[in-house]
Amino acid sequence: MSFFAVFNHWLHLISVILWIGGLAFFIFIVSPLLKTGDPAYSCLQDISDRFRNIISPLLLILVITGGINFGIRRAGQESVPPGYISALGTKVLLVAVIASIHFMGHLAGRMRFSEKPTRPPRFILPKLTLVIGIVIIFLASMLRQWKF
C-alpha cells in the first residue's frame, strides 16, 4: 500500500466527516435551540451560509478523491464484479443528489427574504441530506469490504 493511497483515502474520509458531522451537529444540537422570533435566527443564517461555503470545496475533494480511490482499488484487476459496480453507481447517484440539494440551498441562500419567519424552520433539506449521507457511508463500508 502506498502513502498516496492512504493519504487519498484519509482526505476522502476527512471530507465526509466534516460534511456529515457538521450537518448532524446543526440538526441535532443547533436547530432544536431555535424558537419563533428568536434574534439568534439571523446569526444561525450566517453560520449556515459559512458552513455552505465550506461544503462546496469539500464536494470537489470528495469527487476527485473518490475517483482516485476507485482507480487505486481497481488497479491490477481484469474486471470488476457487477454487484460492486451497482453499489458504486448507487453511491455516486446519491452523492449527485445531495450535491444537487447543496447547490440548490446555496442558490436559495443568496435570495434573502425581508420578512421575519413566523415559525422555526424545519430544516427538511439538511435532514434529507443527513439521511442520504448516512446511507452513502453504509454503501462505502460495504464497498470497502467487497473482495475481488
Please characterize this protein's 3D structure.
- The protein has helices at residues 3-30, 40-74, 82-110, 124-145.
- With 148 residues, it is mostly helical.
- The protein has one domain.
- Helix 2 packs antiparallel against helix 3.
- The two termini are 16 Å apart.
- The model has no long low-confidence stretch (mean pLDDT 84).
Q: Helicity, in percent? A: over 70%
Number of domains: 1
Number of helices: 4
Unreliable residue runs: none
Computed Rg: 18 Å
Oligomer: single chain
Mean pLDDT, all residues: 84
Biggest sheet character: none
Shape: elongated
Give the structural class. mainly alpha
Order of helices and strands: HHHH
Q: Number of DSSP strands?
A: 0
Strand content: under 5%
Q: Roughly how many Å apart are the termini?
A: 16 Å
Brief summary of the model shown:
This protein is mainly alpha-helical and 148 residues long. The chain contains 4 helices and no strands. Helix 1 runs antiparallel to helix 4 (124-145), helix 2 packs antiparallel against helix 3 and helix 3 (82-110) packs antiparallel against helix 4.
